[in-house]
Write a sequence for this structure.
């Protein structure tokens, strides 16, 4: 995407067949939705099939595209609270149909079940976290009786009741694909463990780059630490807040929305070192990346997208040594790791990060190695190969 205005189509070779895209639900702003933006630019004539679509809740570009949602989308509450649809998503996706020669399904647990008369290529962000990473997804040790909020308890109960049939459905859906792609080495290993399927790793590009408008965020002086994460238990934003509290004079800005907002706001109010900004526009997020000192990434991620976005702005990252960050953070090049989800460990890593004289040009070059043209070109090769079959 370097050198191309955001939201415009990058010229691609013509595809000699009908291509459709699919995604779980377009109701939020996250890394997976950023990837769907890139897919839409790679295949600009492809419709996007999804269960739920909330134009106000996701990125504005989707309001300009051919989005084909399921009948569930008629229920307004589900568009803003998609987790309530968990009991009916599997049968809903099983009835969805994409009339195409090749479907590229962007999936974290649902879109891979869409039916099609043609070939199906699954771009997997992660096998369903609620089935295979339940404790991490819920943010509690549910099997040991650890403390849980009422929301977490209800989710745990639903997963306990639906887990077995959902795993059966999920395995059938995975095996209906003709080809699996993984966004990272960690996801490739998870696909192998969950489904016994071998997949190719195709890392997505950073979707938010410096080319575009910047909008200053009032009251934010440059030099803060930035955390970009949905406010969910497994994102460990609470650890970031507690780590900042251990560093006198430190300031952290958290960008993201989610069900843990009230809990985290209370923690931030006690700390005084953290601002929960909520949702930010792309122009505001560019300004935040450009004016932060570094990015802090404390969650276990199947793909480490935000460090690449920070690197595109020449900013280093301190990240948890796990998951997809192992693919996108190169120690000494664009950041460094900490090893435990612990405020003290993170605080020490932030201090160590500040002791390094980072090379902004080298950091930007690291991000350029994940360019969109490389990603789109490989996708076109894969679709052409599937059309030939």
């Amino acid at each position: 995407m370097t050198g191309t205005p955001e939201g415009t189509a990058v010229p691609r070779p013509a595809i000699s067949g009908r291509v459709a895209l699919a995604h779980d639900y377009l109701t939020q702003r996250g890394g997976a939705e950023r990837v769907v933006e890139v897919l839409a630019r790679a295949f600009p004539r492809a419709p996007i099939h999804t269960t739920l679509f909330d134009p106000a809740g996701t990125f504005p570009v989707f309001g300009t595209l051919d989005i084909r949602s399921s009948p569930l989308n008629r229920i307004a509450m589900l568009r803003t609270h998609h987790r309530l649809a968990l009991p009916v998503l599997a049968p809903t996706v099983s009835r969805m149909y994409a009339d195409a020669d090749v479907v590229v399904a962007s999936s974290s647990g649902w879109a891979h079940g869409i039916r099609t008369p043609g070939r199906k290529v699954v771009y997997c962000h992660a096998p369903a976290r609620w089935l295979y990473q339940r404790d991490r997804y819920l943010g509690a040790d549910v099997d040991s009786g650890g403390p849980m909020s009422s929301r977490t308890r209800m989710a745990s109960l639903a997963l306990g009741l639906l887990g077995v049939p959902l795993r059966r459905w999920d395995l059938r859906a995975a095996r209906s694909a003709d080809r699996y792609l993984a966004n990272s080495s960690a996801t490739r290993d998870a696909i192998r463990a969950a489904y016994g399927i071998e997949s190719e790793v195709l890392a997505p590009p950073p979707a938010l780059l410096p080319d575009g408008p910047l909008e200053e965020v009032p009251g934010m002086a440059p030099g803060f630490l930035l955390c970009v994460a949905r406010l969910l238990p497994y994102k460990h934003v609470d650890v970031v807040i507690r780590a900042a509290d251990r560093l006198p004079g430190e300031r952290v800005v958290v960008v993201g929305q989610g069900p843990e907002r009230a809990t985290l706001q209370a923690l931030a109010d006690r700390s005084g070192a953290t601002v929960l900004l909520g949702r930010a526009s792309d122009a505001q997020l560019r300004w935040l990346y450009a004016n932060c000192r570094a990015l802090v990434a404390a969650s276990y991620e199947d793909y480490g997208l935000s460090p690449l976005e920070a690197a595109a702005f020449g900013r280093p990252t301190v990240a948890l040594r796990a998951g997809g960050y192992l693919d996108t953070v190169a120690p000494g090049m664009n950041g460094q790791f900490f090893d435990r989800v612990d405020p003290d460990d993170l605080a020490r890593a932030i201090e160590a990060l500040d002791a390094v004289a980072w090379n902004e040009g080298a950091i930007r070059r690291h991000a350029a190695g994940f360019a969109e043209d490389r990603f789109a070109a490989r996708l076109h090769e894969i679709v052409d190969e599937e059309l030939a079959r």
Observations:
- The chain has two domains: 19-205+371-388, 225-368.
- The first strand starts at residue 19 and ends at 23.
- The radius of gyration is 20 Å.
- Residues 150-175 form the longest helix (26 residues).
